[in-house]
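[09:14] KT: can someone run the structure on this one? pasting the chain below
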Amino acid sequence: MRNLILLFFVLSLARSTNAQDFYPMKDIASFKENLQKSANTTETIDSDFTQYKFLSFLSEEIESEGHLSFKKDNKIRWEYTSPFSYLILLNDSKLKIVDDEDESNFDLSSNKTFQRINDMIISSVQGNVLDESMYNFQFKENKDAFYVVLTPIEEEMTEYISAIHLYFDRNDYSVNKVKMLEQSGDYTTIVFRNKKLNMELKDELFSVE
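[09:31] RB: done, structure tokens below
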């Protein structure tokens, strides 16, 4: 179970940007309003990504490449293409993992913690994360991006996650980077590239059957 939860952590994270480059956000109310508008109008996201995984027992980050497809409601296709092939499909509460010729299927609705992590993944990708019942927030910005630090409140989340860092594009309020810090001190970071919003994506892309 713990390995599966850590797998979800890998889904969410970008090479760390120096927080000293950011200053306190001037208009938090406007940011929240525009972020909600963006989340409401974003039907699909299609993007390449580069992932950097830091493990305390290794001297260097592990780098991998892949492609993300997202579609409302609650559909994610997360595919690693280099240096290995690995596919994760999330369709509502159904999870399918394809590793070479091996396939595994899970029902996340049967476990509250998995469901919370599922909701977190969907919200992080879409940018709809400002749930004050689940997180404490710090709001910052610079000339290039908005930067929000989320600290989990609920015990189920704090057992594994110490903080989530999200970086938003100033033009369309979409997520450019995510960084997730685990309680162990390890972290995963993801940078999104070649991002396209609201393009047509077939439901077959997200099939878990």
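[09:33] KT: thanks! The chain has one domain: 2-197.
[09:34] RB: yep, looked fine to me
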